[in-house]
Amino acid sequence: MNDTIFGKIIRRELPASIVYEDDEVLGFKDIAPQAPVHVLFIPKAVHVPTLDDLTPEQAFLVGKLILAAAQYARDEGFAQNGYRVVMNCRQDAGQTVYHIHLHLLAGAPLGHFGVPGR
Ligand code: 5GP
To answer: Where is this motif: Histidine triad motif (predicted)?
Structure first.
């Protein structure tokens, strides 16, 4: 059972601004955006708390998240300008929701490794 906030969003128990969905991935706007575009991509069917819990059999999920983000960037017309994807693992990286997710940040120059506002 995925009792995280993102589990509730997957089950539509919590509202979210969903901008992308396919068979395996859900994409929705971050509630506290750190860039003009800030979308989170999560696996829908499998609950993996952190990247450190990912098994070799589940590795394809990360590829699915990245492909979803790349597709969204093309669809929204900012792929050519560029974007950043980030995954945080546990406390030192600032992970707050323990269901793996890919941050997509875009819409302005982000600075090397820096994320505005953090
Ligand atoms: P983390 O810090 O774990 O890498 O990223 C979790 C992200 O989830 C944060 O950027 C935070 O703003 C976002 N977040 C937390 N709660 C909610 C929520 O209820 N709805 C949405 N859309 N985003 C959330």
So the answer is: 99-103
